[in-house]
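Re-run with default settings, no changes from the original entry. Doing this only to confirm the output is reproducible before filing.
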Amino acid sequence: KIHAQDWINLTNEEQIQEDNELYMTPQPGSRSSFHSLAGAYVIGSINPELYKDPEDNSETNFPEGNIGRLWFSVEYEQETERLLVFLIKARNLQAPADSCSPFVKIYLLPDERRFLQSKTKCKTSNPHFDENFVFQASSKTLHQRTLKFLVFHTDKQKRHHLLGQVILPLRNETLTSDSKLVIWRDLEAENLEPPSEYGDIQFSLSYNDYLGRLSVVVLRARGLKLQDESVYVKVALMNHNKFIKCKKTAAVLGSPNPVYNESFSFKTDQKELDTASLSLSVVQKAEDDKSHQLGRVVVGPYMYARGRELEHWNEMTSKPKELVKRWHTLAVAPN
């Protein structure tokens, strides 16, 4: 993250999404080709040269298996309660065909019904977008919202192929109108399998053998069966079925696909890895403070887990200090 200079010479297009209703107010002489976008208006542009860092090697240092990288900036205007997103560029996009014609859809979760969309850039895997987008978001709920970028490719038959996604929980960011955060993130593949009966949860595991520390990063859940109540994840460390310690994520309100990105660490001796296990429970919290478990998953050695849960644990122990990320199916805990 770096701080960029102030935006100047505004002449490009800015797109707006309201919490209650989308609308369009075209400016005289402006273009209005916004694809399936429901609301937008034209107000200005940004000089992309302001965002260049002469010592930045992020455009050349791509790890093995990289499917693309996205640059954008985020700013929040407290007085108007507007979240400003400037989509800058993408690099190293891996399209399924020889030529890549990418565009980006931007969501402000938990609202997954509405989105803002960039223009399509033809025949390039390294597009410059330089487009502004505005979401209306209350300052009281901003820390519970999450930006989601979906990068698509349009083939010759005008069909859309998802190349990857970027998820940015706003609770992790300090957003003001005085400074603009310029951020880049590597695209990650979206899990396209349908959700299981009770939903799924994605998290990363890591074990530091030098520090004797077991780390869990709760990333997100999807397909949860809930109404408008808040939902959180409880992570419990067990040893020989004996409870050791429990930690909880912040609650996310009213989303069947909540995003958390919260990290927890447990002090665990290496010799205890053969008898320890982790239980991750997705819990719905109702207004009367009663909690209801939507589902859970247990990862650990052969004593406690099988299948993907056992594989995840074994991969973590075989790759010290490396984050190992996987999706898991939630199940109802036995009574």
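The mean pLDDT is 81. The longest helix spans residues 307-318.
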